[in-house]
Structure formats: structure tokens, C-alpha cells
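Researcher: Good morning. I'm working through a list of sequences from a screen, and I'd like to move beyond sequence-only analysis. For each chain I'm collecting a predicted structure so we can compare shapes side by side. This is the next one on the list. No need for commentary yet; just the structure.
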Amino acid sequence: MRPSPLRADVKPVSLIERKLLHLGLKDPQDFVVHLPIRYEDETRIVPIVSLRAGQTAQVEGQVVRSEVQFRPRRQLFALIEDGTGELALRWLNFYPSQHKQLAVGKRVRVRGDVRAGFSGCEMVHPKVTTAGGDLPNALTPVYPTTNGLMQSTLRRAIDQALNEADLSDTLPPEICARYELVPFAQAIRVLHHPPPDVSYSDLIEHGHPAWRRIKFDELLAQQLSLAAARAARLKQRAHPLAGNGGLVAALLRQLPFALTAAQERVVAEIRHDLSQSFPMHRLLQGDVGSGKTVVAALAAAQAIASGSQVAIMAPTEILAEQHFQKLAAWLEPLGVEIVWLTGSINAKARRQVAEAMASGQAQLIIGTQALIQDKVVFAHLDLVVLDEQHRFGVGQRLQLSRKGEAGSDALIPHQLSMSATPIPRTLAMTFFADLDVSVIDELPPGRSPVLTKLVADTRRDEVMSRVVDEIRLGRQAYWVCPLVEESEVLQLQTAVDTHARLVQALPDLRVGLVHGRLKSADKACVMQDFRDGRIDVLVATTVIEVGVDIPNASLMVIEHAERFGLAQLHQLRGRIGRGTVQSVCVLMYQAPLSQIARQRLRAMYETADGFEIARRDLEQRGPGEFLGVRQSGLELLRFASLETDARIVLQAQDAAREMRADFPAQAQAHLARWMRGKQDFLRT
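Model: Good morning. C-alpha cells for this chain:
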């Protein structure tokens, strides 16, 4: 079939335009806030004799030697001198035109990073231009770019946008004066074209007043967006789920334990939210083992007693199955119809579950991402619970909620998000301003703190002896490995290999194996054997990271602990310490350790406080990766820093309230300049 001809009114997109679009640069306003990541000082020439390794510098000199060398590998080598000294230049990848540019006798201007060579200073892959041209009188901006898009092209496009775009201020003069903010147009022009007297360090370290204005604007736009999301939610309609109290009371009577004061407080907060005619949007935070599942069960009971369906979505099949088993044991004796749906159940079972969900017979549905498939239909879904919500993709968090929005009344389900990764205060202020947050800040009685030990892998035999001792006392142990199969790159101990070695080294013990590549039925069988005490030592990957609850397991060995993230280590450690005996987590590492790995292991050794762990984790990873949204391709904060700009966050919150109340038109203009389609992303 012949391709259809281009419409006459459609302008073909050039290669450069496609690359600019890849950076999110389409309209002049996009280019205006595409700010430099650093600056190059091309305003002066320094003598070669003054160069020191580690600095970035610009020199001029005459080429006295230029050749292609073949040892130790093919490279272009040149030597220049300026009367004060000589400087070696090297290119490991080069074009013939570069060789011509460096012909002996030519005078060139060279800029690059200086390093120590075999016979003095050298530069590798420096920037080379013809000597003698006028020097710029200001710092040269360097912008975020993409492969194949030159800085010179980007600079021209940004300069054109600066002439075309509306740079009028979106902030009222009162707010600018109160927070001592420079005008927007002035800030933008200073950052794109710094005048000669601007401090280089202030620009690089984002300490200049122009940067402060930009950070304020970015945080203000975010706070305006979150406030708008909250206001919009309060205008939405949801089924009030007051319940009659009977099912909730019956569940409380049946539980084999009493709720902690923190759990009772959180249950009351959720009970109040569910009884409202607008959708609940609450984040339930609780450290590992604090008892979030029973809080979710009580919320589900209140909704079911109101005649509604409840869906609980978990990130792994093991966790979904554990929720199913625990909630079934609590609620099925009370007459609640519970089903579970994962990708691995057979076609016949899937049809039966689908029919029960669509008819309303199934009151509580527990599953994995299988719940958000197009063919899955609910009769009247009014409460959605997301467990470990940060482990779902941005879109997945919305899809399940939309399953309850079908129908002419367009009612929105209530939503409860649960997380065992506590959200640090600055992060909560910045990204969760539209959420109500509940915190379970105490552990159930009888829990003893887990003792954490750091052990080099050269002491493996001692660790194995400790495992044997623990099993002889009638207890069980986990042995966690980072990979399933051998990796030639990482050369790490693997679950399969470790299982084989432990079976050989500990012939008197029953050693099991579970990992993500096992069939679901096999995985469930192994976990059940471990629960029932038919397995002494369970070798596992991180499939047991969340939700697994074996009170008799009192020892965990984490192989190559330096390869795990801080939040992951904290979650894994939370799988033990669920009984009354002292539990021990052994972090076995391989030396030498990187600085980040050392920081992670030190944090695990020093504290078991989930909020402190989360604070340190945020420092190391940044908000995007911490919240599980890095894969979205959108940056949460481009200019502001949660570590250093908490004061600006508070100011932006106050300014957002004032602008929404007194300056709504300017608030909308500010959102249009800064958010540009990111509002929905933030609300997830």
C-alpha cells in the first residue's frame, strides 16, 4: 500500500525539531525555562605554565607536533606551546578534519579539563577553536541536551525564544516584595546570559538571587497544582461508606490481638474519611511490621458493610497471596466473599473470578496488576487499597481507581495507599500536599528490635555455624541473594548457586529455594512449607522483600548486602523480628566497599527507625527514584533541592494559599508557565 501524501497544511518536523521535542522543547515558554546545568568560563586565556591537574582551563598556543599514534591504542596526539610551557592533547576518537585543524604551525585556542600525563599536563578530548578571536565577556551557558543536538544550536534556539516569549511576571508585587524575589525576566536573563560581574560559584551552586527566584517559582507551581488537585477532589462525589458498624465490630472481636493506640487512631481517621460524600485520598504510613494490613481490613469491612466492593492491589504475587490468606482467615468466617486475581491463575479460575466480580458476588478482591487489565470489570468498586504504592508505575496507580468510575453517576472510589517506606517531612510537604497522611508510629507489643551485624564474606563459615545454631533452637532462617543466575559482569553469589552450596554444606538441614522465576504454584508451595516449618533455611531473592510474615524466622543473612538499596535492606530486615525472640540480621558484604555502599550499611547498623532510614535514603537517591516515578521520564524537581530548600517550600506553600484566594488569574498563569501538562503526573 502506498503511503498517503503529506497534507499541504502539515509542516514536516525536522531532525533538530525532533531532538528539541525529545527535550520537551516546543513553545518559546519551554525554551525560556530550559536553564543551564553549568557554565564555562571562556572569558580569559591562562598561561600553560600555570595549569594544575583537576582544573578546567583555556589556553592558546602553537601546534609544534601533531600525529596519529598507534600505541597503546590508535589516537590523535598533538603538542602545543605558548612560550611558558607545553601541553599535550589527546583524542581517542577523532575525525580526519580534526587532524587537519591541528596541523603543525597553526595557532589554536584549547579548552578542557587538565590532568596529569606521563610528561606533564595534558587534556583529553578538549574543545579546539582557531586562536585570535574575541573572547566572550560573560560565562558561556551549557544546557541539558540530547545526543546529536549541539550546544550552539540549543543556544540559538533559546536566544530566539527569549526574544519571542512573554517574560511578564506571574507573581503579584506584594509576594515578590515579601519574599525578596527578583523579577522573573531579570532572573531568566541573568541565568541564560550571566553578566561579567556575576559570581561563578553563586551560579554553579544555585546561590544567586536569580536561582532563588527560579526555585521559588518551581515550588510555588507545584504547591498550586497540588492545592488545585485537593480542591478538585473535594468537589468530586463518592459513595459515603459509613457502614452499620456490625461487620467492623465482629472483625475486632475475632482478631487474636488488640489494636495498638496508633492503629486505633488511624482506623478512626479512615472511618471518618470513608463516611464522607467526597473521595478519601489517604496515605497510610507505618514502619515494617507496624500492622497496616489489619487497618486495611477494617477499612474494607466498613466499605463492605455499606454494600460496596473493595479491591486491594499488591506489587507481587507472594504479597497478594499472603493478604488473601490473612484476610480470608479474618473475614470469611464473617460471611465476606473474597477472591484473588493474579496473572498466573488458570483460565477457568479467571472466568469464575471475573463473573463473581462483575456480578457483585465477590465483595473483596485481592490481586496484582492483573486487577487493572481492560477485561476486568467491577460491579460497584468504592474502595481501592494500594499496598506499597510507590512500587507501581505512575499510570497503574490511576487505572485501578478508574475501574470504579464507570456509570452515569461518575462517582469516584475512595483510595487508601499504604507504604512501609516512611515519607520524610520535606518530601511530604513537597509532593503529598494534596494527601491526608496517617502514621502508625508504634509497633505491636512483644516485638523485640532486630540486632544488625555487618560481616565480611570472608567469615562465611562463622555465619553458617550461626545458622545451624539457630535451627537447633527450633527456629528458621532466611538467606537472601541479589540474583537468580550467575552474571558474568557482577560475579555475585546467586540464589540457585547458594542453595546448592548450602544443601551440600548443611546436610542435616532442610533448605528451600524461592525466586521470581519460579512458577507461581511452586512459589506458593515453597512459602507454605516454610510457614509450616517443613523448611529450616529459605534461600530467596527479593521476592520476599514485602509482606512475608513468618514469626518463627529469627535470622536473616543478606548476601552481598552492599548491592541492595537502603529501603530494600530495611524492608528485608523487617521480615524477621515478628516473634518474641531476639532476631538477628547479618549483612554480609564483599570488600572493598564504595562510599555509598558504606553509607548504606552504616545506616542499617546505626538505626532501625524507618523515618531516619527514609531520610538517609532520600539524600542518597533523590525524590524521583525514592518515590518510584523515575521511570516516568518527568523530573520531579529540576532546580530546587529538598535538602537545602525546605524554607523555600514553606514560603511557597504560604504563597500558594494567598494566590489561590486573592490572585486566581495570576495563579493560573504561573501554572501555565511551569507545569505544562505535569499536573496529572504530580497527582498520582
